[in-house]
Structure formats: structure tokens, C-alpha cells
Amino acid sequence: MTRSAGMRSGSSSRAGSSVSRAGSNTRLASTSATKATTNTKAGNESGGGSNLSVWEVAVTEARRRRTEATNLELDKVPRETTLLIVGTRSAVKDVCHLWELGGGALFTPLLATPLTARAMARLTLLVVVDLSRPDTIWSDLETLLSSLKAQVNKTVESVSGLKESLQEEANKRIQSHHEEGKEVKPFLVPLVIIGGKYDIFKDLEPEGKKLICRALRYVAHTHGASLHFFSAKDAGLIKKSKELLSHYAFGTTESRSLAQDYNQPLIIPAGTDSLATINMNDDLNLDKWKHIYTTRFPQESEERSSVLPEDPGRDPTYAEPDVDNLRTQKDEELERIRREVGRNSARWAELELT
């Protein structure tokens, strides 16, 4: 797999316990085989009973590492993620393909890679906003949702009848709100807005939290999206997020949890909110909400260049040790080949002169 700036891909299978990476499995097998040899030798010398097989030791080691990973999970620093695309399920076994877009709105042209007509019928979009940065939430959402909508519409229009079938499914997700049809225009594919870093957001002053929650609820509801808050330091929210991903990736039963109180992390499945409770009887539309939000939280006016870095592969933002090490080896091999070609060219030049 080659690495591109901004977009990462991966896969997850229900046949295994979780997402696995090439390389880590090799190390685990090697460790397990060593332990199995040691245990077998010890059993033979002591005249003990049954010896452990390599598989039994491997399973034990995997369980131990999973327990350790769970204990350390709360202390890990979350990686900056803007968009996560949960892709197709296989008819043979359940396999979920994950595409991650980092770098904010800089790399939105890369969305064309996973957003293909073939994947549309089994696609879910997860947009992640940083709750600890109210000064970027609205601008990031506005840019990403606009880019996603344009790319999805462009893709579905290339296949006859696809847009109509997706629109029918989208309407079913919000069928209880048909009377709000003028304002509620659901995405053609399932959409989830994730509010990250809730552990920092919860300490924000009450009125600011209330405004942000109402604004996010409005954007989510009018786009037919679910809204979930998340923190890597909250075991309960981690569990809810895993259930959410399992539902969209493998079709498991959707959680019936509903939390609309801004003093608690929001968990609002698509179609369960309403404009009456969000607007509190005020006549507010998207433009008015944007004015209210950006007046209270002026958005960061940074220049967003659409030009890729000179060498995206060396950008520390997208560091991947396994890929980077392989890239270094290939660069060294390429440099060696260049030197050899240079020397051979010089020899041929000398022969031609003589």
C-alpha cells in the first residue's frame, strides 16, 4: 500500500478481533512460536502433562496484548482526523474498508478515490470536528459537507437510477420529519458528525456549550445525519463509538441511546431530533444559525492552500513507521541504482572516445 498525503485506507474483518496491521501479526507469530518451544521443552524436562501448542500460546498472547491495549487506550493521544469513510461489506465475509482523510479541507480532491459509484450503496461518511476548537467547527463543517455533497452528486449522476434509489433510502431515515421537508435535506448516503475531544469541551462555559450543541444539532438534523460526541479518555464514549462503527460497518443493531442535554455528551441518531426542540420555536434557518454562531465564535481566517506539499511522503503529520521505513529502503536502493547507472554511463562515454 502506498501512502498519499491526507488519505489513508485500511480494512477490518469480523473474523478477527479487531483491525490488524501487516507486520504486527508477524511479530506476534514469532513471539508465540518462541514461547511454545520454551513451554514444550519445560514440560518435557519436568515430565509434566500436556504441552501447549503454538496456536494456544498465540491465542493467550493475543488476549494479553488486547487487555494491555484496552488499559492503555485511555492514555493515548488521539490522532487528528477530519473524515472517516466506512466502506463496503463483502458477501463472503464481513470486511469493512476504512478511508481516512486528514489535513482538514486541504486534501478534499482525494475524496474522488473512495467515493465511487460501486461503493455508494454501502457507504457511510463520518465527519469529525474538534470540539476544543469552536473557532474552526463551523468553517470545517461547511467546507467538508459542501465538498462531500458535490462529489457524491457527481458520482451518482454517472449511473442511471442510482440517485433515485439512494434518495429513497435517505428519505426513509427521516420519514418522521416529512413536515420539515423544506429545511431537512438528507445526504444521499448515511452521514455521522462526530464531535471529538469532549473531555476538553465539557469544561467550556455553559452558554458557549449550549450554542455549539444547538448549532451542531441543527446542521446534523437538516442533513439527515447522526450526531455523536467522543473522547478517547472516556470509556463509556469509546464503547458507544465502537457500537456506532459496528452498526454502520457490519449491520449490527443500532444503539437506542438518546442524549440531547448539552451538559452531557450528545448522542442523537439520525431522525430522532426535531427543529422545534433545536430552535425552541425561533424562526431560524441555516444562514441565521451561521450568523449567530460565527458572531459568538469568529472563525479562524487561515489561508487554505490547495497545493500539495513538495514531498507529502515526508510530512510528519502522516507518519507511518512501517511505510516510512520501507520508503527509506526504496530510496536508498534507488540512489544506489542511480550511482551505478552514472558510473556505467561514464565508462561507455570513455569507450566511445577511445
What's a quick, concise take on this entry?
With 354 residues, the chain is of the alpha/beta class. The protein is 46% helix and 10% strand.
Topology:
Blueprint: E1 7-13, H1 24-46, H2 54-73, E2 83-86, E3 95-101, E4 124-130, H3 134-156, H4 162-173, E5 191-196, H5 198-201, H6 206-222, E6 226-229, H7 235-250, E7 267-268, H8 275-279, H9 286-296, H10 321-353
Parallel strand pairs: 4-5, 5-6
Antiparallel strand pairs: 1-3, 2-3, 2-4, 6-7
Provide structural commentary.
Strand 2 and strand 3 form a beta hairpin. The radius of gyration is 26 Å and the shape is globular. The chain is built from ten helices and seven strands. With 354 residues, the protein is of the alpha/beta class. Helix 1 packs across helix 2 and helix 6 packs antiparallel against helix 9. It has a seven-stranded mixed β-sheet with strand order 1-3-2-4-5-6-7, with helices on both faces.
